Task: inverse folding
């Protein structure tokens, strides 16, 4: 007997209008659930598109340094500030690609009375420091009436001081760390550990010196001497910049270029610095322009997002393991 028929009580079988309702109800529920799911997916799709668009607009805004006032807005007479924080390297606030555009913008602005470079750095790449110094010297020749001052926060050592030495004057705190005029090249040797573990190094090269300073191979005297010669050359470049920048103010001793560093108070005595001050006191008392405008090229939003997801960390790890050993001013 069909499930859609029922007995009407008088011995007749008639169609049951309620039979099969559960199937229809189930089907309707499935349809409505599908529609609801699609609506939710569409809403989330719209949300993510809007979020991506917002991030893109903010990133472009940051990258191109846009402002509501526009580039033609006069800033008036002011002290231009550029900051270098952390290591002098190919990325970050100490990178030449970031510092040089800021320097050019600060020097070329008709309203800037002087440029103050605030440095808080233990050093870093001699290449990046050298590029920045060369640009500072070029700008000083092009704008002879616009002085460049350096203000040291916690530390201005090695590559940081390499840059500072090109300034007209250097101001420190009594407890700042200043100096470390030297060069280093550091690595590790794992040959003893490999012998104990029974690990064999299989290095193939085309070129007798291609495995130069390979940490998994014994160091040869020839390679060590060549590396020392390179360090000495870079050290002399560093010394030349310091002597040229400091001139007769520098009171040289056998320790001046030995790689040692000193307190800010001692640095003033040695002629490595000129006096005590902060950005505010230099702007107020030296430049006579209390209004300070920051020209630092700050890292854009896209770069921050990439770093948050580990792009830079991954690249740094690869360089640390497999990259070449490079001289550093640290």
Result:
């Amino acid at each position: 007997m069909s499930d859609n028929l029922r007995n009407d009580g008088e011995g007749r079988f008639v169609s049951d209008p309620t039979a099969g309702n559960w199937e229809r109800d189930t089907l309707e529920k499935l349809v409505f659930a599908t529609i609801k799911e699609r609506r939710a997916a569409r809403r989330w799709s719209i949300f993510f598109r809007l979020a991506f668009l917002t991030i893109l607009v903010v990133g472009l805004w940051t990258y191109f340094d846009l402002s509501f006032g526009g580039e033609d807005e006069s800033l008036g007479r002011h002290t231009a500030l550029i900051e270098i924080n952390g290591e002098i390297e190919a990325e970050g606030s100490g990178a030449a690609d970031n510092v040089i555009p800021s320097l050019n913008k600060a020097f070329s602005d008709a309203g800037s009375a002087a440029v103050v470079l605030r440095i808080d750095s233990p050093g870093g790449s001699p290449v990046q420091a050298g590029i920045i110094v060369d640009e500072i010297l070029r700008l000083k020749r092009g704008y002879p009436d616009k002085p460049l001052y350096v203000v040291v926060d916690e530390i201005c050592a090695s590559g940081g001081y390499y840059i500072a030495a090109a300034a007209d004057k250097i101001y420190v705190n009594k407890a700042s760390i200043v100096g470390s005029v030297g060069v280093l090249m550091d690595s590790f040797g794992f040959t003893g550990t490999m012998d104990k573990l029974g690990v064999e190094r299989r290095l193939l090269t085309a070129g007798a010196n291609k495995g130069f300073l390979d940490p998994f191979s014994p160091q040869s005297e020839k390679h060590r001497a060549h590396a020392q010669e390179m360090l000495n050359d870079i050290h002399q470049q560093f010394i030349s910049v310091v002597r040229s920048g400091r001139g007769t103010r520098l009171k040289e001793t056998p320790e001046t270029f030995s790689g040692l560093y000193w307190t800010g108070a001692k640095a003033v005595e040695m002629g490595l610095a000129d006096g005590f001050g902060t950005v505010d006191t230099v702007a107020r008392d030296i430049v006579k322009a209390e209004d300070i405008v920051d020209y630092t090229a700050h890292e854009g939003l896209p770069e921050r997002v990439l770093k948050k997801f580990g792009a830079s960390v991954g690249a740094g790890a690869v360089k640390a393991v497999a990259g070449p050993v490079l001289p550093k001013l640290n």
